[in-house]
């Protein structure tokens, strides 16, 4: 039903538009033609009035005008002029032939002759010598003709008490060529107006018929070559949108030889492409969901590989430890680890594998397993890193590497032996003093080069001392302005007093909140991993 409405709407709009166009064309043609014909007719009719005035002028003796004006009487020549002009008046349909002398000072005319005196019923006739205001819409023009003796450029159309006329004004000259009077001849306009009205009616009728025949033919053409193909394309698009079924063969059979044919071909191709795209998208979505499920499982596996139960050793009061990791992707390359080598030795590890995602996670599993195995075999931190480095370098075609920090705490005397393989320096708070960087020799990264040697160092921790390990995802956290959180901000935060009196778990969560506030929603490119260790008391060497 909606489609039918749109069909009628499209045809209706085109029809209305064409009718409006037809109306505008008709009006333009008629108005333009009428004005041109009117101007031409008025000019021709006025020229005819001038020809009649010239004929009447031939009967006037300009040398006698002054005598008629001064004496106020007529003579035989005046009577002969009257006879001939009256004959012309009766035979030509003129409404008036009038001879007068204008006075520019008073804007009046003195009558010399008025043919209408023969009509006793005509109250507008003027006798010889009558003075009257110049009866014209533009009296100055009459005076100018008398003064210059030249015919005006435009024509006179007068509508007054004498009727609706076109006037011819010619100068009457004496033998010396001087203008002695003006002769005015008036032709009635009603005949011309009737002619114009007849022309207008015939022009309007013919134009309307022709234009509407053309518009009707054009509408039929548009209906067949434009409206119907567009309606078909609309129906096809709706069918495809509802159930992804169209009429490809029918669309390819649209041959209008213009943009509509191109549109039909493009729409048919688009339907084929969209169908392929939707089918491919369904497969990709299914694959993506499967990968997402697998990554979720991988995340759980990776998380389960890291110590995540706190406190890990409830029976051991000598130390407290807490750690957390936040991966930038589903799985990451950062890891931490802690485990008891024996009853009195605790090993802590934090590391960052190059790269992100599944490759980094797999390399992380290998590195973590190797470090733990060698440490539990009784090797020193230095020996552990040297052995792990050589093993990781084997078949490392991907060129991945690991930055790592490892330390072993002897809870009996507080000695802490550590080694650094290119990792960020930990922060150490000892004796209640503020946190400061733990001095360590940064060796080369693991898996970077075979047969590397590492240096281990040792410090003594006392009850209450804390050690904060972290990866570069902490110090290199970015905000929307692409500013780094930096080591300076990290050190300032842990020494700000906000961590005082808090449990280790609370301290790391406060630090993570601080990073979240700093990031302000910006996507992080690196994993964030932290581990904090505090020595509570020294234990019994015998366990």
Automatic annotation (TrEMBL):
It comes from the Bacteria. GO terms for molecular function: phosphatase activity. The chain crosses the membrane at residues 12-34, 198-219. SUPFAM superfamilies: PP2C-like (SSF81606). The keyword Transmembrane helix applies. This is PPM-type phosphatase domain-containing protein. Keywords: Hydrolase, Membrane, Transmembrane, Transmembrane helix. Pfam families: SpoIIE (PF07228). It comes from Anaerotruncus colihominis. Residues 318-535 form the PPM-type phosphatase domain.
């Amino acid at each position: 039903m909606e489609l039918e409405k749109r069909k009628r709407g499209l045809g209706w709009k085109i029809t209305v538009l064409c009718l409006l166009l037809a109306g505008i064309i008709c009006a333009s043609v008629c108005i333009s033609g009428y004005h041109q014909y009117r101007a031409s007719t008025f000019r021709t009719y006025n020229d005819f009035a001038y020809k009649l005035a010239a004929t009447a002028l031939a009967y006037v003796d300009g040398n006698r005008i002054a005598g008629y004006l001064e004496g106020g009487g007529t003579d035989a020549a005046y009577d002969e002029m009257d006879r001939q002009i009256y004959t012309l008046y009766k035979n030509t349909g003129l409404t008036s032939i009038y001879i007068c002398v204008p006075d520019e000072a008073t804007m009046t005319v003195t009558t010399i002759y008025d043919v209408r005196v023969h009509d006793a019923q005509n109250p507008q006739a003027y006798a010889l010598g009558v003075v009257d205001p110049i009866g014209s819409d533009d009296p100055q023009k009459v005076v100018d003709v008398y003064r210059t003796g030249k015919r005006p450029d435009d024509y006179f159309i007068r509508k007054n008490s004498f009727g609706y006329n076109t006037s011819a004004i010619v100068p009457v000259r004496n033998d010396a060529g001087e203008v002695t009077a003006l002769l005015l001849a008036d032709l009635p306009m009603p005949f011309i107006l009737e002619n114009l009205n007849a022309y207008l009616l015939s022009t309007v009728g013919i134009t309307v018929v022709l234009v509407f025949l053309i518009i009707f033919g054009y509408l039929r053409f548009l209906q067949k070559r434009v409206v119907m193909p567009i309606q078909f394309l609309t129906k096809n698009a709706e069918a495809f949108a509802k159930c992804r079924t169209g009429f490809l063969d029918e669309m390819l059979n649209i041959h209008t030889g213009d943009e509509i044919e191109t549109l039909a071909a493009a729409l048919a191709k688009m339907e084929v492409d969209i169908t392929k795209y939707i089918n491919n998208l369904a497969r990709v979505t299914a694959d993506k969901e499967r990968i997402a499920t697998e990554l979720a499982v991988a995340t759980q596996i990776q998380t389960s590989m890291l110590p995540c139960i706190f406190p890990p050793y409830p029976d051991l009061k000598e130390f407290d430890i807490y750690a957390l990791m936040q991966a930038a992707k589903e799985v990451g390359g950062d890891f931490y680890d802690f485990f008891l080598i024996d009853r009195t030795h605790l090993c802590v590890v934090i590391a960052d594998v190059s790269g992100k995602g599944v490759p980094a996670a797999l390399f992380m599993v290998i590195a973590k397993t190797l470090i733990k195995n060698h440490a539990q075999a009784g090797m020193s931190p230095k020996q552990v890193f040297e052995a792990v480095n050589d093993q990781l370098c084997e078949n490392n075609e991907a060129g991945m590497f690991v930055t790592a920090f490892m330390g072993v705490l002897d809870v009996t005397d507080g000695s802490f032996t550590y080694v650094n393989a290119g990792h960020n320096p930990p922060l150490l708070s000892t004796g209640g003093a503020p946190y400061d960087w733990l001095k360590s020799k940064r060796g080369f990264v693991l898996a970077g080069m075979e047969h590397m040697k590492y240096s281990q160092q040792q410090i003594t921790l006392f009850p209450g001392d804390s050690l904060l390990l972290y990866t570069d995802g902490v110090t290199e956290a970015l905000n929307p302005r692409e500013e780094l959180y930096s080591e300076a901000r990290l050190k300032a935060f842990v020494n700000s007093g906000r961590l005082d009196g808090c449990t280790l778990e609370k301290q790391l969560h406060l630090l993570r909140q601080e990073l979240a506030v700093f990031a302000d929603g910006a996507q992080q490119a690196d994993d964030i991993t932290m581990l904090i260790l505090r020595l509570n008391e020294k234990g019994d060497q015998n366990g």
